[in-house]
Amino acid sequence: MNRGPSRSIAPGWKHKLPDWIREIRFVPGEAELLAALGNGEIWHLDARSGAPIGHFLAHKMGVLQVQWQPKGKLLATSGEDGCARIWSALAADACITLPKQRGWVEQLAWSPTGRALAIAAGKKLSLWSPTGEPLAECTEESGTVLALAWHPAQDYLIVAHAIGISIRHPDTLELSDIRESASAVMSLFWSPNGEYVAGGCADSSVRFWRYPSFQDSEMPGYPSRPLALAWHPKSWRLATSGSETPILWDFTGAGPEGTEPDGLEGLSGTITALQFDFAGALFAAASDFGEVVIWDSRNGQMLSNDTRLSDRVTGLLWRTDSRQLLGSSARGELVSLRLP
Amino acid sequence: MSQQPDRIPVTVLTGFLGSGKTTLLNRILTEQHGLRIAVIENEYGEIGIDHDLVVQTDEEIFEMNNGCICCTVRGDLIRILGRLAERRDKFDHVLIETTGLADPGPVAQTFFAEDDISARYRLDGIVTLVDAKHVLLHLDESDECHEQIAFADVVLLNKTDLATGDELSLLERRIRNINAMAQIHRTQNSTIDMHAVLGIGGFDLKRALEIKPTFLEPEYPFEYGAIYALAAGTYTLHLTQAGEDHLPLLLFGVAGADADTLKSAVDVAVPVFSADGEACELGHAHDEHVGHHHGHDHHDHGHDHDHSDHDHDHGHVHGEHFHHAHGDAVHAGEVLTPELRARELHLHGAGPWSVQLNITESGNYAIFMAHHPSEFGAQLQNSKGQVQKPAVQREFDGGHSHDEEVGSVGFTFRGDLNADKASAFLSRLTQEDGADLFRYKGILSIAGEKQRFVFQGVHMLFDGTFDRPWGDAPRQNAVVFIGRNLDRDKLETGFGECLV
Questions:
Q1: Do B281 and B396 form a contact (C-beta atoms < 8 A)?
Q2: B35 in Cβ contact with B10 (< 8 Å)
Q3: Any chain B CB within 8 A of the CB of A329?
């Protein structure tokens, strides 16, 4: 699956923001986008031109997570100031602030229906209504919460920690089960069909658990920690980081066990972000060298490899119609690639 | 192995609960030192001051490789330091506070095991706070306490106002026996010049020598030697406290009362003091008798000491290092005469204790003790109760003292090293003995290189880089190892075999 680029995809626009870009998101409707920065600001830009619309200080220190409420218009953010906030508009005063946590609020996840927001600071996990009422809370005794992932049908909330995953009730956070792994699980991603939850682990492996048995399998041997993972929108494939070569595992049929994955070549740096487009036809990956490469995910053909940011790429974001790919960098660069 | 001068310095603060860590942390954050410091505080921290860059976190220990206890790192630090590095322009220094019971290994290893971290940060120093009043209890009972001291670049002997001068001297000696590299500062209420804890920098052999002049010498089977000029008569060795419940010693006549005579007396005393009375050379051979490697498994310190007529259940493994004295017991109230025979004072029951010395002929007498007399409040008095002062005295690196299993070995040697051989030796050493090596540092003279090669490591993980040119300074290798059951011979031989 290693072929040269078939065509060049020229950058649509570039814009430079004042600090490290932690997260980029489209505003619902996709006419606008927002970027959350390491200095605590959220910038609001025109998605087609890159022109800034405004910005405001969302957190006293860096923004850590940003997530739109599914099927809603609320934006949840969390920060290094120990706060999680729910915004009704992109303006400094248009938010409610949840009670301050002890330590960074490193995790944040809306439930699939948008009726609850899970946040985690250290070992403390709590659930909030969109209007900021407390719904449930617990302490994750197995260690700091390293990642949160709601089952797509909202059957469970999965919590990653130093000894594996905890499976918790979506309303009460009551512990249903713990599945231990040999290493800390540092990121979590449910397959869109809800049949697998995959995690990047501290021992440079990828583990996944089958739903509903939560029986696990392991893909070890990555050169570095494969924390960035991405599912094909139809759950056919799982793309993994952990080296300079995106590895695509086949999850059709009985699953990836015993199969040889595909490797996509074209990057020289370690992968920092990867994403399938919403149709599953295109796949983009980016590296700590600032490279952004796009492949045809069906045949592995490289479509573009001439986009380069000046520092580590911190995020990739596809427009729903696959006509635009956005990339952000550690130096505050935002770049838009237009696809034919 | 490139130079990375812009790496952010990190200070790690360790110490048991109540040792004064929080007070020190508050001082660091409020003093006008011009540094903007990010603090990573453990979940039980009580810092309670409004500071922008305080990050509270759990101490998450991650295993790097399945089942290898040496390859543990701090997962929270990986994440948080990674994030903090994104704000590089906003702070100058990172301070990490650990819980009182934390093993410093994982935090130190994070800076060696994680490429992302070591590329952006450098471990400036580990500062261990010690509660001068209560640490002895921990030292006798807690491996963590030994390890926190063993890992330290700086030890703050805090709350000195609550301890006596003798207690502090004893404590300093014990700390230095564990870690000969660390700078020890006596403090009250954690008051210390910030330069002593921040910006400590790298390995400084000169400093290590200033701290403990005997550091580079071989280990001796005793810690103290002196020559007294005594008139014929009866004397009393008076002991007010029991540093141990037995004190091996040797008393014999010598020709003079000067330093040279004492030096000659050492040559006489070493084989007598050593196991089985066999002669051994000064230098390294006697390590086999008094060091940490005499043929049985030192990991098993829980075995019975079936070689004594009294109970050794006092939390030490002292007895196994001094086979010689067990047949020559002297109990309090008994009489000691000068002779070339090692004896062991047994201090049972409540003190004070005294042993009578019969000097039949006026002259000079050398006395060697396995432990420093201050540990026992030992004084030599004449029949009128007047304290006798030695004509000459000196301390020796016993290399065992109370903390036999944890200690330091350091040495210098001249000559250029073959880079491949040195690298292979260090790799082999750390693979084989990494579990017992807490910290090690060194400067090496590599053949064909104009710059000094400096390295440091924790357990199995180490990092080396060429730093400044030797210039006019004499090329010389210097290494320090702090750990458990260290084998000086093996280290010296290993490095020696790397010479070109």
A1: no
A2: no
A3: no
Query: Does any CB of chain B come closer than 8 Å to the CB of residue A182?
Result: yes
Q: Which of B60, B79, B110 to mutate to test the interface with A (most CBs of A within 10 A)?
A: B60
**How far, in Å, are A11, B11, B114 from residue B152 at the CA level?**
53, 11, 21
- For residue A272, the distance in angstroms to the closest alpha carbon of chain B comes to 13
Q: State whether ipTM is beyond 0.85.
A: no
Dist CA B276 CA B477 (whole Å): 35
Q: Among A205, A204, A248, which residue's Cα sits nearest to residue A230? A: A248
Q: pTM of this prediction?
A: 0.72
Please tell me the distance from the alpha carbon of residue A138 to that of residue A122, in angstroms, as a whole number. 11
Identify which of B43, B61, B83 has the shortest CB distance to residue A122: B43
Chain A residue numbers with beta carbons less than 8 Å from the beta carbon of B55 are: 80, 103-104
Residue-wise burial string across B273-295, b where 16 or more C-beta atoms lie within 10 A, e elsewhere: bbbeeeebeeebebbbbbbbeee
How close is the nearest chain B Cα to the Cα of A334, in Å?
Answer: 16
Q: Which residue of B has its CA nearest to A161?
A: B60
Angle at B4 between CA B194 and CA B34, to 5 degrees: 25
Tell me the shortest Cα–Cα distance from A331 to chain B, in angstroms.
9
pLDDT tier at B304, thresholds 50, 70, 90: very low
Q: Which residue has the tokens 């952004």?
A: A292
The rounded distance, in Å, linking the Cα atoms of B453 and B468 is: 8
pLDDT, tens digit (0-9, with 9 covering 90-100), for A59-107: 988 999 999 999 888 999 999 889 999 999 999 999 999 999 888 899 9
